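Late entry, written up from scratch paper. The run itself happened at the end of the previous shift, but nothing got recorded in the book at the time, so transcribing now.
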Amino acid sequence: MNRAISVEKGINALEALKQVASIEAKTYVGMGSLVIGINNLKPDSEHYWALYVDGKFADKAIDAYTIDNDITIEMKMEKIDFGKMG
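Output as recorded:
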């Protein structure tokens, strides 16, 4: 689902995503939040919800992105690839 929304500046990307979908997230101390379910859709043990910001694989947790200007946030269910995760 693609959907453009307007949010208050300074909100984090997790809170913005919660405005358009039912989100289940888990917070890890020192790392941030990881989305584990979107609209009751959860990946199996070989997949996860990958976060992309402006078309690039995210380099930090979704709640670490503060929205100060127009950005594109994408969540894609992908096969776990530890090499990609750095």
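The two ends are 28 Å apart (CA to CA).
(Scratch paper discarded after transcription.)
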